[in-house]
Each structure stands twice: as structure tokens, then as C-alpha cells.
Amino acid sequence: MGILSGFRVLDCSIAMAGPFAAQRLGDLGADVIKVEPVTGEWQRHVSAGGAGGNKINVSFLSLNRNKRSLAVDLKSAEGKQVLLDLVKTADVFLQNYRPGVAKRLGVDYETLSKINPRLVYVSMSGYGEDGPYINRPGQDLVLQGMSGAMLSAGRGDEAPTAAGQYLVDAITAYSAFEGALAALFHRERTGEGQLVQVNMLDAIATIQMQELSVFTIGNKPQTRSAEPHAHVYIRAPYGAFATSDGFIIVAFPKLKTLGEVIGEESFLTMEDEVDSWTKRDEIFAKTRERLKTRTSAEWLERMRAADIWCGPVYGYADLVEDAQIKHNGTFVEYDHPTEGRVKTPGFPIKFSKTPSTIDRGAPIVGQHTREILKEAGYDDARIAGLEQAGAVASGEL
């Protein structure tokens, strides 16, 4: 039994951030009901990387394990009533509709909290619930650009490079996950639910606590170098460097030590807290040229022996086979009824008494509609009537 066993979550979200947050709650044992249109959630029809599947594409599969699917038409009176009935026994309601949509659908916090005052209502948005940007699309790369972070790395005369993961979506998902847990804890103490609001812009801004404070408090300008330095607020050398057979990371070593290891005599008399800033491009360029002369393995062995912070640059194939990743059990495998054997990232939080498990893979559309409605007190005749009217849909494997 997971640590959130006994809690019910109504997941009315789409795309990545909302479903990812709800999946984390499901991984901890919550009963997560994926409330989706009768034609299926948007992510079912859009496959990241072009990775399809037998019945479920990889994008949806990766973000919707440990959930049951309820396919319902919320634009119909009968379908909306189904959801309102489920709200009575829910603990968390999670949605990432565009601002104003929840109210138009009649599933906003004010409406649902009257039905269930203990409800924790998590509302996710791109920029906030109101303000000048509420009608803009909250898309990951767009928010990366607004975050300021893209101008903290790379060459000053080149276009910024995006993160190698859907960073803003993931950070927002974890913010919503954290908010839901905190609100549930408050409810356990007081008995009262509440509205929890999370937006992508604030999420990506506030994780830059240190960087933005250096700017706002320390008054240090955000100035990129001519060389592809990895962060404007970290002294040189700091970044990814080519070797004779690949790439390695080198993170702000003592210049004298680095000079001894790579054979760069000019580093031996440099001051770490002075020259590492004022000669950043020179140091980066000289390090780059020296590191081209040996293999990644050779440099990593030499640098680690000198206590220099360094590491390999992995691709996904390397990551999956890494010894520490295998030791940690970072990836999990399970059998899915339509997609076969699935290998996917597992659980980042480990509990000694209430471990996370995969009780079910991502569902097909409406796979659990009948099951969920029977739990809510609907009889077979009423369910059949809703299906016939198109208010709900049921799917079978």
C-alpha cells in the first residue's frame, strides 16, 4: 500500500505538466482517475519523438501509469454531473485548463468546494490565473526563453540553446505535486481543503533562487562570454569540452591543479577568484585545446585523481547502462496489456515502509469508466444510458 493509499485524485489535466504531477501522486498510492474526453486526452494523439505504440503512444504511456481512465463529455449536462458526483468523494482535483475554462465548464474551485469543502483543488496555468499574459500558450520552450536562464550559458554571439529536457513542464509538475501534498497535510491537521495555484512562469523563475539573487542583490550583470561557458555566474573553466573521442564536463577546478593535470603552464600562476572571471575566455579556450589530446577516460582518470570535479557527457544509451543507475534501480520494467514489456524511469523518492509500485500501466480511453461509475453508485442501466447518449465512453482492452 502506497503512502497515499486511500486518497482519490481527479486528474483533469492534459499534455505533460499536469499528468506528470498526477502520476507522481499515483506512484505514491493515490487512486488517480484520469478524466478525459470520450475521444481521449490530447496527448494520446500527439507522440513526442514520433514514438507511437500499439494502442497507446509513448508520450501518453510515460505520463499516465497508475491511473484509471474515465472517458466523459464535460460539455454535456449528464457528463458534467458524473464529474460532480465524483467530486463528493475526491481528495484532490487537478486541472491545467486555460484560465477561465474551468469556470465556463462549471468545475472551478468555488463551485467544487461547495460540493466538497475538504477538496484540495490544484489549478495549473502557464502564466497565472489573471494578468496580461493569461491568454498566451504556456509552452515549455516559450517559458524557457522567458525564464532568463537561456542567457546564462553559451557564447555571447550565438543564439541561446534550450535545455535538453522539457524542463519547465517538469519543474511545474513537481511544484504542483509539492503543493498538493502540502495542502493535504494541512487538511489532515484542520479538515479544510483549499485552492492551490501553480504557474509555469513562477515555477521556472523561482528555481533560479541563487542566480537571480546574484543579479538582484549582488548587482552582477548576466554577461555571456565569447567561449561557450556553461554559466555566467560560475568561474572558468566550466562547461563541456571535446576530447579525442567524446566529451567531458569540467567544473571550476583550482587553476593551478588543472594546469598541472593538463600541462597548461599559464594556469599555474593565475588567481582563482580573480583570473577565473577576468580571463574567462582565455582559460576556456586553452582548456579546450589541451583536452583534445587525450581520450575521455584518460582525462577523467587523471582529473579524479587530482580531485577535480569532472564527469562524462552521456547520451541516453550511456545513461541507461550506467552502473549507478542500475544500482539505484532508476528504471523500472513492467508488462503492459497492449504495449508489451515497458522500461521507463521509476520513482525518485524511496520510502522504507510504503514503497511506490506500478499497479497498472497507462489506460486506454475509458477503460475504467464503468468501474468508476459503479463505485459512485451508478447502476448498469444508468451507465448504459450515459454511454448511449455519448456523455461517457467505455473502452476495452
Automatic annotation (TrEMBL):
Pfam families: CoA_transf_3. GO terms for molecular function: CoA-transferase activity. The keyword Transferase applies. InterPro entries: CoA-transferase_III_domain (IPR050483), CoA-Trfase_fam_III (IPR003673), CoA-Trfase_III_dom3_sf (IPR044855), CoA-Trfase_III_dom_1_sf (IPR023606). It comes from the Bacteria. Keywords: Transferase. This is Crotonobetainyl-CoA:carnitine CoA-transferase CaiB-like acyl-CoA transferase. It comes from Rhizobium subbaraonis.
